[in-house]
Amino acid sequence: MKTDIDIQNHYHFSFDLWLTLIKSHPEFKTKRVELFSSFFNVDAPIAVVAKTVKYYDDLCNTINEVTGGNIDTFEIYLMILGALNVDVKLLNKEKLNEFYVKSEELFLEYKPVVIFENIHDFFDDIKSQGKTINILSNTGFIKGKTMRKFLIHENLDQYIDFHIYSDEINCSKPNPLIFQEVKNNIEDQNLPLNRILHIGDNPVADYKGATDFGFSAHLLKY
User: Fold this and answer.
1) What is the DSSP string of 73-105?
2) Which of 166, 149, 77, 80 is nearest to 112 (CA)?
């Protein structure tokens, strides 16, 4: 799989995260639904809560891809709670942030699974050639600040020259602005766009977004 990625002809490597490098812990989403239900005193069966959470998670991801914008994590919470007949007017940002902190603790307890095999060796190979790496990830429930904590825990942060998360710059792949942000952060500003390789699993957000901007792209299929 990874041998298909052309290291020799590229000098900077941009990696998507979800379903490219990592996937959710098999128990995490179930635990998060349980937390959602108990924390907000949702009066609905847990199966209904789970279905509603998944619906709005998928919907918001799609909206972000179609519009190139970024729906805030707290906005996603409020959509879900409104659909579950919770009176969202009784909530405030402090309460939503309190939930996020608990959700982050759960996320770091049930950490994602690294699916890109031998990733440390692969990143070592790139860095040993004097080349650079960034993370470029659309976010939804999990903010960029939490992903940084996870990558530090996995000893992957040491390889990454910079991170770009959609919640931090308020735009999402395939918006060309987010790929421009990658270009802006590369130390060698004279590096030709086609020498920058973006690797991801999403044909629209990752592959088409990158190639439309002028980057090279590699579509991963597990």
Assistant:
1) HHHHHHHHHHHTT--GGG--HHHHHHHHHHHHH
2) 149
- The string of pLDDT tens digits covering residues 5-16 is 989 999 999 999
Helical H segments across the chain, by residue range: 28-39, 46-67, 73-83, 93-109, 119-128, 144-153, 166-169, 176-185, 209-213
Identify the bridge partners of residue 23 per DSSP, sorted by sequence position.
Answer: 113
- For 113, the enclosing helix (H) or strand (E) is strand 113-114
CA distance 117 to 119: 5
Phi, psi of 138 (to 5 degrees): -70, 145
- Whether 135 and 145 have beta carbons less than 8 Å apart is answered as no
Tens of pLDDT, residues 34-81: 999 999 999 999 999 999 999 999 999 999 999 999 999 999 999 999
Alpha carbon of residue 33 to chain centroid: 19
Per the structure block, which two tokens stand in for 167?
């919640």
Indicate the pTM of the whole model: 0.95
What is the rounded CA–CA span in Å between residue 80 and residue 74? 10
The two tokens of residue 164 are 């770009």
Give the distance from CA 92 to its chain's centroid.
25
